[in-house]
Amino acid sequence: MDGIYFYSFFWIVWVIATFFMKKTAWRTMVAAAALITIIFSSVSLNIGGFQITLSFLFLFFLSCYYAAKQSRRKLVYMAIAVLTIAFAYTSFQLLVFFDPVWIWMDHRWMLAILLVILCFLFYENIQSRLLCLVIGSCQGEMLYSIISQKISFSYIIGSYSFLDTVSLSACCTFIWALVDYIPVYIDGKKPIRGTRQP
């Protein structure tokens, strides 16, 4: 069922931010962003002949806002990474549409794995990976919708299928970051030779 991964992921993010994170402005922003995305997912607008969900617009502009805070050199690099993600996203969606025989499992999982691998090739820190993932996926979604309209195929930009893919990709990114952090955390807990751990 479309939307199950999206709702599960964003509700988990909201619960973690609300009940487990320290009371800071960042925690409030994360909780609010997760809740707004969930609320906006069922609302859509008609813009220029395209039907777009508010969740899509919210995630896209929020990610662009944080990406714009980087230096010009980093922005140029991110633009290259985002274009790569966007073209990969569109190409995969076209493959699903025109030649689905190659899709041997849930296409949302296959696309999510592809996007995560590409993000990992471009960036090492989780913040840049998530920004690149969301912006690239959004642009790929828009490009695919333009192509769909040219062939008289009705398509909702930011549908639950898109939100599922982004949620799965973000979840995989968070899990990988957690796995990377575990050895660092364990090393920090090990007592230095010749000393006692309090």
Automatic annotation (TrEMBL):
A Pfam family this chain is assigned to: YphA
Keyword terms, alphabetized: Membrane, Transmembrane, Transmembrane helix
Matches recorded under InterPro entries: YphA_Bacsu
Protein name listed in UniProt: Uncharacterized protein
Chain segments annotated as transmembrane: 6-21, 28-45, 51-68, 75-95, 107-123, 130-147, 167-186
